[in-house]
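Anyone have tokens for ATP-binding cassette domain-containing protein? Sequence:
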Amino acid sequence: MTTFEVVAEGLGKRYGPARALDMFDLAVPTGAVYGLLGPNGAGKTTAVRILATLLRFDTGRATVAGFDVLRQPSEVRARIGLTGQYAAVDETLSGRQNLELFGRLFRLGRREARQRAGDLLERFGLDEAASRSAGEYSGGMRRRLDLAASLIRTPRVLFLDEPTTGLDPRSRNQVWDLVRALVAEGTTVLLTTQYLEEADQLANRISVIDAGRVVAEGSPDELKSMTGGDRIEVVVRDPADLAEAARIVAPISGAEPVIEPEVRRLSVPVVDRVAVLVDVVRALDDAAIAVEDVGLRRATLDEAFLHLTGHRPDHAREQAGAGRQAAVA
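Reply: yep, here.
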């Protein structure tokens, strides 16, 4: 029987006339990484702030670790950790001093706070930099220190609100490894992100949120299948063969291929992927159509996001814009 550590039903939140959340539903299974995926302004951070008892909602209900967010906020806070989009560490203090301070704020004794800080510094690979001020840390180190601070008391539920924003790939991978280790030890993680790869790598299940409402929910593979699932792509040597190749492939696949003449390619959705691929290759060979490339391709989470929301995530648009600027320059 599946149990749920985080449940939200019909949450609504307004800022004046604007709706930040609109009948928002969520059910996060115990011991999982659950991804909340959406563009900037979709309502991800609002949802996290409500579930972490930092913001009151207007309608609906929510429970975290079995406690009502509205009526039992102290019980909820005692069982959660939270890491926001930006590292909330004191840059004038050393890494060790930061963690000891958090320990004292969580009412640990001086000796226990010192011991816990040491354990976390070692675990997060910061022990050699423990005496340096946090202001001297790299972005990845500050993020790891911030994550360590949220674990001063081992939480049942950890909220990570876009935890790798602005990090380089190496630092992002380090944070991913830490998240996986926490889940292996029993912590439930609710992760908000606009990085599709991050959701794909970490999350067992994902809710796609747009304009304050969940527009789709499922595993990464289930979301990808909403775009049409697997596809066979064929690149022919001679563009004149495209129409004939499409005529051959259509009855085998059971669908009408999409032809892209500028790249001499056709693609078609398939269900029985391997069997259809073998039949397509054999039929094209029998028809003496020269093929430069043929293969199976799975839909990406990027394509699923575009299909579900009608636009790409913000970071993808930023990367595309940077590429265009570089081309112009």
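Confidence is low (pLDDT under 50) at residues 316-329.
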